[in-house]
Amino acid sequence: MSARPLPPPRLADAAGFGRVAVLLGGTGSERAVSLESGRNVLEALRARGVDAQPVDGIAALAEALVARRHDRVFNVLHGQHGGGEDGVVQGLMDALGVPYTGSGVLGSALSMDKIRTKQVWLSLALPTPAYVRLARGGDVHAAARALGLPVIVKPSQEGSSVGVSRVFDDAGLEDAVQLAARYPGELLVERMVVGDELTVGILDTGDGLRALPSIRIVPKGAWYDYDAKYVSDETQYLCPGLDGDDERRIGELALAAFVAAGCSGWGRVDIMRDRNSGDFQLLEVNTAPGMTSHSLVPKAAGQIGIGFQDLCWRVLEQTL
């Protein structure tokens, strides 16, 4: 899957990047995670001699770019509505002609909307769990009956497991809707896939996109929720998560899903493997993945010899 040799970095001298804004924080629901990601990226770039400065949120970035204080942007602003994964900040940077890391407007906006991403995947016969699009005030009990319990109830436009509930009986549906409805956008009711939780990082290493080794996530609790992602030190990450042909297939599927969603540069595709059938099911694409101590793209990159500083450098090279 990642067997071809890594090309050398395209740039040898950090001065070639000019002045780099590390976009972090913001006003979205994932602000705390983004701040930690940004601190780590900032430290890594500076350690390699890059002239990198933190910029907190879209308004501050707009002011800085209009004043021409930065030449390019490393985006680790997570989420939407003040986050950096919904296409808004990408549109701003495109309008100002400033290069940036990660996906453009289309890939960012589409991937942030789980319902429309699933529609694209299904149109291309890519596997994703059956779902019902639930308008606010819609009948969640009817949706659950149509899919069959257990189901996942979640906001259609949030990340980091924010607002997500696993529901095993009819009595839990109303509470799940109340939690998900705290966040903007439509709600998504999705058939729960019971099995292995997997993720595949995608990285453009200068010679095209490649799938990084998969990671199988084994949380201590029942599932990979916010605490397991960002707080607990007891979550296990097995990399590579699969062997042989299964590892090849999941890499190919992740790449196809990433490209289908209009994404570019780098990202992460979350996938479930059904315990009974062994089939893979696509869940979502993250276009500005976490770069915290618990984050998964750095773990996968490390498996093919790309350390954290080198990963940050290679992602930033995508702006050249």
Brief summary of the model shown:
This protein has 320 residues and is of the alpha+beta class. It has helices spanning 31-47, 58-66, 88-96, 105-112, 114-123, 140-147, 173-180, 226-230, 244-260, 296-303, 308-317; strands spanning 19-24, 51-56, 72-75, 131-134, 151-155, 165-167, 187-191, 195-204, 209-211, 215-218, 236-238, 266-274, 280-286. It has 3 domains: 14-101, Rossmann fold; 111-126 and 194-317, ATP-grasp fold, B domain (D-amino Acid Aminotransferase, Chain A, domain 1); 131-191, ATP-grasp fold, A domain (Dna Ligase, domain 1, 2-Layer Sandwich), CATH 3.30.1490.20.
Structural commentary:
It is found in: Cytoplasm. Pathway: Cell wall biogenesis; peptidoglycan biosynthesis. Cell wall formation. This protein starts with 18 loop residues before the first strand and ends with a helix. Helices cover 34% and strands 22% of the residues. Strands 8, 9, 10, 11, 12 and 13 form a six-stranded antiparallel beta sheet that branches. The chain has a four-stranded antiparallel beta sheet with strand order 4-7-5-6. The chain is globular, with a radius of gyration of 19 Å. Strand 8 and strand 9 (209-211) form a beta hairpin. It has three domains: 14-101, 3-Layer(aba) Sandwich (Rossmann fold); 111-126 and 194-317, ATP-grasp fold, B domain (D-amino Acid Aminotransferase, Chain A, domain 1, 2-Layer Sandwich), CATH 3.30.470; 131-191, ATP-grasp fold, A domain (Dna Ligase, domain 1). The chain is α+β, with helices and mostly antiparallel strands and 320 residues long. It is built from eleven helices and 13 strands. The protein has helices spanning 31-47, 58-66, 88-96, 105-112, 114-123, 140-147, 173-180, 226-230, 244-260, 296-303, 308-317, and strands spanning 19-24, 51-56, 72-75, 131-134, 151-155, 165-167, 187-191, 195-204, 209-211, 215-218, 236-238, 266-274, 280-286. 48% of the residues are buried. The mean pLDDT is 92.
